[in-house]
């Protein structure tokens, strides 16, 4: 089998890349280890930057994001029992949309299949070969057990933080920048009405909490916990006590309801450099991971493939590798902006196991400065709603 671009992974990066390439008449095949049903049911975060939504709409896959998603013109930072609104529309002239990642994936998968794309779900034993040659290969076993060798002009490694692509780059050629945080997020899904029109990011003495939403009837909430915490050890009453005490102040209370999903999410920052090795190009979580505090994961994957699709278009239409050579350096600029923003939001809002009274008092000073100064709030608003896409 052959294709122009072999894509490993049917997540946001892989699907969007295939979608953008198709618009340039470039052929791709996507190889994915999970089943379609699993991808479409896996719950992830749900904040889309303005630029991500604009791109979905302009390329014909944004209709449901607009009609079923919700536009948010601001968020609240809450500390010392009081809420402080960051007005995105006023400060940055941009907004974000709450629309879950798996819904974006459903829309992209449907659009790709409708255009006749070849997506191999349920593939096994995926490995990459000859990536420094002109004819790299994705070898895998098809869902029906057939061994396949997919010969490509270029391979895009879009297989997420635990995929095989980045490990194909020899250790001697790769730098792994990694940071683990000494806490995780305890996440729940709840059948309850909204407690707030906008997302609430809370700093409290007991630790961070985030009040988010999915639909008018289903809410998503998180609170900082030990990364080794077992979610099943917690009774519903204990979860509500913890959440209520973190957001308490001024009589504010969360609307409680039936908890129907729970889990602990690790918090990590990671970047692999370079993002290119021979004819292998990494995009999305395969190349970098951010902690969820800045809601940047999916958006960063989309930003990568915008740059990559343009580079591939130039490569296939002119034969020049100039833009392919520039892909990593170009994409990595935004990657490090997002790394900084995600680290900053995380550090500002969480309590650290070894923090001193000085550290906590300093955090409160920082939160006060960010929410009361126009320059501070504008920085947060611009970063959260997303810097303009490079297109
Ligand atoms: C979510 O709704 O799951 C969510 C929202 C904002 C974040 C992270 C997760 O920063």
Automatic annotation (TrEMBL):
InterPro entries: FAD-bd (IPR002938), FAD/NAD-bd_sf (IPR036188), RIFMO-like (IPR050641)
NCBIfam families: PRK08243.1 (NF006091)
Domain FAD-binding: start-end pairs: 2-338
Native organism: Prauserella muralis
Keyword Flavoprotein: yes
UniProt keywords, alphabetically: FAD, Flavoprotein, Monooxygenase, Oxidoreductase
GO molecular function, one term: oxidoreductase activity, acting on paired donors, with incorporation or reduction of molecular oxygen, NAD(P)H as one donor, and incorporation of one atom of oxygen
UniProt-recorded name of the protein: 4-hydroxybenzoate 3-monooxygenase
